[in-house]
Fold this sequence. Notes:
By secondary structure, the protein is an alpha+beta fold.
Amino acid sequence: MVKWSFEDDCLVPRGQIKIEYRGKDPFSLFLGAKLIIQRIFEIESKDFWERDFRWDITSDPRTFYIRTYGNKAIDARSKILVEVIYQGLQPSDKSKDGSMLIMISAKLLTEFNFQTKFQNLPFYRGLIKLYNFMFYNKVRRGYLVICNTLVSKLNNEFRSYLNAPQAK
C-alpha cells in the first residue's frame, strides 16, 4: 500500500515547550495530567497512552521518566499527536522539595492512502496533488493554528497546576 505522509511541527520554530518546576511533590502533576490532556484536546482514554514509564526506587530522591502521547483526530486524513515528557526527582518524603522538567511537543500528521488500483494511477495521484495544493493545504494551515492554541492551553494549565510562572 502506497501512502503519502505530511508532518508539521506545531511549535515552529522552538519545537518544544519546557516547564521547569521545583517544589513539593512534583510527581503529582503526572497523576492528573491524563485528565488535563483529555479535557484540553477533547480526546477519550483510548486516544491517550504512556509509551515509557521509568521509576527508580533505589535512591532517594527517586528519579522518574515518563513519556505520554495524546492523539486527536481532526478529519479523515489529519490528526494532532501531542507528546509530553515528565522527568524529575521525587523525594520519598513528599514534604521535601523535588524537581521536574516537562517537555511538550506536538505534530500535525496528514496521510493520503492509496489502496486501490484506481488510487495508484498517476492521474488520480495528480488530482490529489492538485487538491492538496489548491485546497487542503489551507485547511492544514488552520489545523496548525488549532494545534498551537491547544498546546498553549496545555502549557498554561500545567503551569497553573504547578503554580509556576507563565511563559513569556
